[in-house]
Amino acid sequence: MPESVFIKRGGYRRMDTFMLATIIYYGTVVFCRKHIESRRQVEQMEQAGRSGRQNMAEGSERAATSAQTEMTLTDVARASLTELQLDFEDFINLRGGTPWLDDDPNSLEIKSIRLERTPAGANIIHNFSRTVAQNRAKFAKWLESDDPTVVANALIRLCDRADFLTRKQLDAQGERFLEEGGFKERLTRVRVAARVEPEAPACPKCGEPMRLRSARKGPRAGGKFWGCPNYPECDGLLDVEGDESRRQSTGVDSSRFESGKKETQ
Q1: Could you tell me whether strands 211-214 and 237-239 are parallel, antiparallel, or unpaired per DSSP bridges?
Q2: Could you tell me which of 52, 13, 19, 47 has the C-alpha nearest to residue 136?
Q3: Mean pLDDT computed over 207-217
């Protein structure tokens, strides 16, 4: 099918990064109002948490017309959560404690908890709020602890997890830009298109018309495959013949599309 001038934008409510940023922001608001006396520090920490969340949403929405803005805002979100993480580290250190080790049982458990994803389709705002509540409940034993050091440590670990996933998201945005260009490049391609692209199959996961892409890695680098236009929110793949086995025939290093893969650093 002909390439669209505007890529699909939004969909941030189904992103793990945005879900984590939301949990962190809500947890920060509750923490600050319970345990931080300085009104100025409360405002700074809450603003850092809000910035991490809101910039992810804005970057996702701006993707249709500016890949550069999308990447810039995603990186601003990442940096804001890093700033917030340092505030929680300072809170623990100034109380005479030390943050949890990477291999502390609590750190490992927080890292391993699988997030629920907001269902696609109608009632996305309602369903997102319900999914946030479900995911917050998974971290409740830390975030609702009476010990503020435990809460601060948990939020540090959530910030660390969000940072790791946001870096992967930035890498995917950069690869997409290198492969497809930005808005101006799409305008040019649409204007000068001289041939009709083969009819695109529907994504086996979300049903959207797929995009014909070229493999950048692996034994079949340069080969063609069908990729979902909603990546990274959706990781559907097909080879050009429509084989839904995906992994054996695309020639793509498809591990980066695997949403269920355990996070490692």
Answers
A1: unpaired
A2: 19
A3: 82
Q: What does the block give as tokens for 265?
A: 């650093």
Residue ranges of alpha helices (H) inside the chain are: 16-35, 39-62, 67-94, 105-112, 124-138, 140-143, 148-180, 183-192
Tell me the pairing of strands 211-214 and 224-227: antiparallel
Give residue 73's pLDDT: 94
Q: In 3-state terms, what secondary structure has residue 15?
A: coil
**CA–CA separation, 252 and 175 (whole Å):** 13
What is the reported pTM?
0.67
Cα→Cα distances 114→117, 170, 172, Å:
9, 21, 21
* pLDDT tens column, 116-163: 999 988 999 999 999 999 999 999 999 999 999 999 999 999 999 999
The predicted-structure confidence for 53-85, as pLDDT tens digits, reads as follows 999 999 998 887 778 888 999 999 999 999 999
Question: Burial, 48: exposed, middle or buried (Cβ in 10 Å; 0-12, 13-18, 19+)?
Answer: buried
CB atoms within 10 A of CB 49: 28
SS3 253: coil
Do residues 127 and 118 touch, judged by C-beta distance below 8 A? yes
